[in-house]
Design goal:
33% helix, Methyltransferase, Cobalt-precorrin-4 Transmethylase, Domain 2, alpha/beta, homodimer, 12 helices, Cobalt-precorrin-4 Transmethylase, domain 1, five-stranded mixed sheet, 4pyrrole_Mease_sub1 (chains A, B), globular, 2 domains
Chain lengths: 285, 285
């Protein structure tokens, strides 16, 4: 049996009882290590689970799936994923491969950032399409996520922005020379995401557009959701560019139209309640 | 401390280790019993948690929140919610009440239907606004959810349809006479939801419209997601009106444009692969 086990978002104890029992039963346990991270490292998980973990990077999952699935028809193998196994990244490839090999699989769900963001008080069913904001480089500054945010806002919907993670990236030089030397991991902060959005708004104005999303749009910055040191800050997009949220992982929400109850919840996390009052777009029903 | 603890979707063991530790520490433990249900009853939970649970219906949470929060500033109280505490229903009211009373609170997240639906292979970030499909009565047949589905489909987005739950409903007669006699709980099935959607499509055609969503639109019926007897069926909307999924809870997804990988995953659950091929709208990128 292949178990796809969600680890939740905080630390070792965010695994479900069912998940923990499965992990302890398995012969091999892989930890997916490229789409998200917990606030604790591999060692803390190993100690709590009482199992050695094999780190599975993207290369391994994509290119060595058969190694990963070896003998999973006769023994139990677990694939651990931060959040939910079908959260921000689906692991459909692995499931399809298992099915083709005749290996049964079971999903053990957990919270993912896709539903845990509800803790800020915005209603999950008022979110439109989720977007990913990628790190800009000197030569590559995509803006397509902004168009999706605009579309959601025009429909009154909130937008969850998942922020870029760069793990096991090679510098151009190392890549060209075929050297497997990796840069330190980078996690986009709410500040960086807000700065990129502000830059796009400026660009659009230079092009004569009048974006729905402005410096004054109410946003929510979230850091380490589900962890003991979780931090949530609500304020204008401008304020998000300088708010202090600490270490990764960060997420950003650009709000649409808010229900009064949503607004009241957000105020619990406001960086500055006065500017907040004037800039929120409220639903009157 | 007020703990808002998500129970996940299946049975007693879907609670997280952190959640279980919190529950066992609490002086009073309430079980929210009006927005969702697990596949096991209160007694099974009590036995596993080693705690007596107090059932909290909507009336109690809305009208007797202060009783619920009594002494939560000096002792630990838990409020258990099937799924995630901020999933389909947010419990913002309770949180705001606690904050006003100076009671600290902590959220222990878990999977909710809002993210667990990813198990069918459709990507969560390709979902638009979530809708609720309510039971029609002889005199009340709202169609507003259909317009949201149409809007999502026009943008290529999938729609998660949460299906109605009627718990502790009174008959009109008992309500008028002030008798607190309740009807048996009712849970909308995928069949019923599909029938209502098909009826709306007919209505719209009679009005001269040409709906995006038709009898042949690929849909996914999900039952008891996360439980050992979970069932997923993918097929046309017409097929959803007769597919056999067993007991509650059910959810329905109306697909938008699909990525080839999403389509390949859905085929694992197809009721009839031939009709499937012709009716899916694929994304070519």
């Amino acid at each position: 049996m292949l178990y796809l086990v969600g680890l939740g978002l905080g630390d070792a104890k965010d695994i479900t009882v069912k998940g923990l029992e499965a992990v302890r039963r398995c012969r091999r346990v892989y930890l997916e290590a490229y789409t998200s991270v917990l606030t604790v490292g591999k060692e803390a998980l190993e100690e709590f689970y009482g199992k050695e973990l094999i780190l599975a990077d993207r290369e391994m999952v994509e290119q060595e799936a058969d190694t990963l699935l070896k003998e999973a028809d006769v023994c139990d193998v677990a694939f651990l994923v931060v959040g939910d196994p079908f959260g921000a990244t689906t692991h459909s490839d692995l499931v399809l491969r298992a099915v083709k090999l005749g290996i049964p699989y079971k999903v053990i769900h957990n919270a993912s950032i896709m539903n845990a963001v509800g803790c800020c008080g915005l209603q999950l069913y008022s979110f439109g399409e989720t977007v990913s904001i990628v790190f800009w480089t000197d030569t590559w500054k995509p803006e397509s996520f902004f168009d999706k945010i605009e579309k959601n806002r025009r429909s009154g919907m909130h937008t969850l922005c998942l922020l870029d993670i760069k793990v096991k990236e090679q510098s151009l030089e190392n890549l060209m020379k075929g050297r497997k030397i990796y840069e330190p991991p980078r996690y986009m902060s709410v500040n960086q995401a807000a700065e990129q959005l502000l830059a796009i708004i400026q660009n659009r104005r230079l092009q004569g557009e009048k974006p729905e999303t402005t410096e004054n749009t109410i946003c929510v910055g979230l850091a380490r959701v589900g962890a003991p040191d979780e931090k949530i800050a609500a304020g204008t997009l401008q304020q998000m560019s300088s708010v202090e949220l600490g270490g990764p992982l960060h997420s950003l929400i650009v709000t649409g139209t808010m229900h009064p109850l949503e607004l009241e919840m957000l105020k619990l996390f406001s960086v500055d309640s006065s500017s907040f009052e004037n800039n929120a777009c409220q639903r009157t029903t």
